[in-house]
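Subject: two folds for Thursday's group meeting

Dear M.,

Sorry for the delay on this. The cluster queue was jammed most of the week, so I only got both jobs back this morning. I'm pasting them in the order they finished. Each block is the input sequence followed by the predicted structure tokens. Could you check whether the formatting survives your parser before we put anything on slides? The first protein is the one we discussed after the seminar.
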Amino acid sequence: MNAQVFGFHDDFDTKKALRFFSERRIPVHFVNLDERPASRGELRRFADKFGAKALINREAPRFKALALHVAGDSPERLLERALAEPRLLRTPLVRIGQRVSIGHAPDDWKAALDAARGSHSQGRT
């Protein structure tokens, strides 16, 4: 069992997510979005669960710097823009198996870990 965390090294919520998994000795594959943006398919996984609007951080300095707060773009169009401008995303984006979460969500992470442990223990004989 491992977790995949998409975020930024300078983002406090991303740091909290990495610390959460580290304290539980869960291997983490960290994707620094400054170095490698998330793929369209990966973002689609989160958008399918929460909607494109939930992925966009309307409070982000980059959102305001690009004047997107007055542009009135649709959430889907903003999500497309986030492929090239990952600082528009709410982070961290966390995936554990098929379960995904957005932002600082330790209760969701714990539930996903518990579910993953349960499915692993059921497979043993």
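Second protein, same layout:
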Amino acid sequence: MSAAEPVQEFFSIGEVCELTDLKPHVLRYWESQFRFLNPAKNRSGNRVYQRREIELILLVKHLLYTEKYTIEGARQKVDEHRKGGELRAAARAALTVQTLESIENELKDLMRFLSSDT
């Protein structure tokens, strides 16, 4: 019996970009606009993100890109979630939406591939 793979706790900016489908300059800009996005830095000065920060990034992405909030509106909405004790639930919901959209896009690509193959 093999040991279970350890759960990754910290992520580089490159890994976060891959997970969230965002560019590094977008993440850095959001850090300047949302004070709760403040990743730690390692000894080399590189950003190190935790899972909860990735969830918050996905929430911000959902508010800006899907719900079409402005930066200020998204900031206010996150503050409302925080004050209502719903921040984690809202972040998890945004993660679920992101995951479903990703699966839907992959299925569409697969359907196009399969229909072009016949």
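Two things I noticed about the second structure. The chain is about 65% helix and 5% strand. The chain has a mean pLDDT of 89.

Cheers,
T.
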